[in-house]
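name: query_chain
kind: protein
chains: 1
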Amino acid sequence: MSGGADSGDASSYLARIFELGRRSALQLVRPPSHSRRAEAARRLARHSLLITAIFGVLIILLMYLLDAREIGLMPPRRTPSLWPVRILTDFGKDAYVLSALACLLILVSFVSPLLYGNARARWLSFGIRVQFLFFAVLTPVLAGAVVKWIVGRGRPFVGGEANPFNFEPFVGTEAYASFPSSHAITAFALAFAVTAIWPRARAAMVAYALLIAGSRLVLLAHHPSDVVGGALIGVLGAMSVRYWFAARRLGFTIQRNGHIVPPRNIFGTRKRVARRPTAP
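structure:
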């Protein structure tokens, strides 16, 4: 009897996990429902155009004025004393960051079915934030991979010299995948996303993104303009994902002027959220 009961409990638990995943996927692709989503979309378009214009000019200036010079200022590749920088730069590797966020999502999926009431609502609310972080990083990383393939910019010293205008479009090799920097995309996307949820973390996350970007320059993995291009794609991608979530009332709300704001805290304190939890 106990064996049958245990088997039934296990089946029920697995069914709840499956249902949680199904609801999570459906709420991401459901039609937008927020009444102020049009204002938020216009605000997103304005800010995106402004940021793109500013960063675009900066990228061009860096390519002509600094990219080649910066290479000469950095220590030679494989310098033994750079081992701390090599460790630091891995904290901006997209595979590591996305894997960590995916593990958090899996943890939420396994723990949530075991909870009830307010505890489950708070855990699911946290799961929605983690889900936002995951897609806020994944989306610009995928976009950056496409741009890398199209642009085909050579990394520093590929071809035997410091040539910032070494391009081989559509080659798709690692040597010609300099623009944009994937580490910069990941770091700035994560920094923007974390700050969007927890504004008090802004200073720490900006420092994190700048350290990761700087490590790519010190290791001669990228030109300065590659890093700026990565920051641009990372921020734009995270901004777009934030709008996607806010328009569907997931983890964010939209003010009258179209400004997207986070909940009051990590778990959400609004009573209606606690009464009607959604899947992460």
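note: Strands lie at 253-254, 260-261.
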